[in-house]
């Protein structure tokens, strides 16, 4: 449009000298009269006229809504934007999920220290599990978004995720998934043989979990099975020798996951139902009594499993006090959501409950290692 305006303005200037003078008007000044080809001229050369017209019409073009060309984005800004997209793809901006994956492993490592009489637990092993939790959770979220990119774009809470918003391509996400799994491999290989075998067995179920919501009526149960496997891996990695303790901690964690993920999924229940996706939140939506039975039952399973773990490990009174506090905290969290408290806040409160359970196990392990029970 700007080029057309310039061309038109140029033609107007060039043809000004062609108009015959009307009566009572003098001829146009020589400076605006075109010269014949090859003849000397006292007027402005055409290129200079065009430059003058462009300079004169540029403000008019901007005022008419024609923006000037934008400068190229700096390389640092481009890299920062892409790094942010991949970080959000792995949920690095939301560390609650990483903590919820790390805590069952910490339970197992700490309980094994009691069995081995080596309290406090190995700090290096806990650090490995912390880094491994971040990488595996990032890989799991990446795989989840790859499976669900079409669905996420139609759900209010998830439509701004990088794949749903087309900030990241599917191929790039696949490369990022491979990079995270590759980075986690040395951590797995640093563990002992039984822990390596148990950890490797969890990779495929973890990556396939996103399909559960399409084909399983209770995907929260599947998530609990996958998300709490670190309790078994951690117990084995720390040299624990009683399978009953590891199994009880695993069941307790799975029941705990059913509670917090059902609460977390509640805001998506309407969207999930409209899209034909399964969820326990969909099953209990609009039925308060059914919701209470479900969550109360899962909480009872957690309490029973922690009781079994404490008995098998020979933990003393301090463990039972801490376990009661953890169960009570989850109960208060569930009750708060019935009173209108946000599900995201309840999800974060689950980390507190997990830490209380860890503290109870640590107290029990310390007493057991000391030989007197605690």
Main pleated-sheet profile: none
Show unreliable segments. Answer: 1-42, 46-63
- Amount of helix: over 70%
Total count of strands: 0
Strand and helix order: HHHHHHHHHHHHHHHHH
What is the general shape?
Answer: globular
Describe this structure in words.
The protein has 374 residues and is an all-alpha fold. It contains 17 helices and no strands. Helix 4 packs antiparallel against helix 5, helix 4 packs antiparallel against helix 12 and helix 12 packs antiparallel against helix 17. The chain is globular and about 65 Å long. It starts with a helix and ends with a helix.
Which keywords apply here?
about 70% helix; disordered N terminus; mainly alpha; about 375 residues
């Amino acid at each position: 449009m700007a080029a057309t305006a310039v061309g038109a303005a140029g033609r107007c200037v060039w043809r000004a000298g062609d108009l015959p003078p009307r009566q009572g008007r003098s001829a146009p000044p020589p400076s605006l009269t075109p010269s014949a080809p090859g003849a000397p001229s006292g007027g402005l050369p055409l290129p200079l006229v065009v430059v003058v017209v462009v300079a004169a019409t540029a403000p008019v073009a901007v005022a008419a809504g024609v923006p000037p060309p934008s400068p190229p984005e700096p390389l640092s800004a481009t890299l920062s934007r892409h790094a942010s997209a991949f970080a959000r793809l792995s949920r690095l901006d939301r560390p609650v999920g990483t903590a919820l994956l790390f805590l069952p492993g910490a339970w197992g490592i700490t309980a094994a220290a009691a069995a081995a009489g080596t309290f406090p637990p190995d700090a290096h092993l806990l650090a490995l599990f912390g880094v491994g939790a971040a990488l595996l959770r990032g890989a799991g979220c990446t795989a989840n978004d790859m499976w669900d990119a079409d669905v996420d774009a139609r759900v209010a809470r998830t439509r701004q995720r990088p794949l749903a918003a087309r900030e990241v391509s599917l191929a790039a996400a696949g490369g990022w998934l491979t990079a995270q799994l590759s980075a986690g491999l040395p951590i797995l290989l640093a563990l002992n043989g039984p822990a390596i075998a148990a950890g490797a067995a969890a990779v495929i179920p973890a990556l396939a979990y996103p399909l559960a919501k399409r084909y399983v009526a209770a995907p929260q149960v599947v998530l609990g099975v996958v998300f709490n496997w670190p309790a078994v891996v951690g117990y084995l990695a720390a040299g624990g020798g009683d399978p009953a303790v590891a199994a009880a901690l695993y069941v307790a964690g799975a029941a705990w996951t059913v509670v917090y993920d059902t609460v977390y999924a509640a805001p998506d229940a309407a969207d999930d139902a409209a899209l034909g996706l399964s969820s326990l939140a969909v099953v209990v939506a609009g039925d308060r009594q059914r919701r209470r039975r479900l969550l109360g039952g899962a909480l009872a399973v957690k309490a029973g499993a922690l009781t079994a773990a404490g008995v098998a490990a020979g933990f003393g009174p301090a463990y039972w006090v801490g376990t009661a506090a953890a169960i009570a905290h989850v109960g208060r969290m569930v009750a708060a959501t019935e009173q209108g408290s946000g599900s995201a806040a309840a999800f974060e409160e689950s980390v507190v409950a997990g830490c209380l359970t860890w503290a109870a196990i640590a107290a029990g392990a310390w007493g057991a290692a000391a030989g007197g029970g605690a």
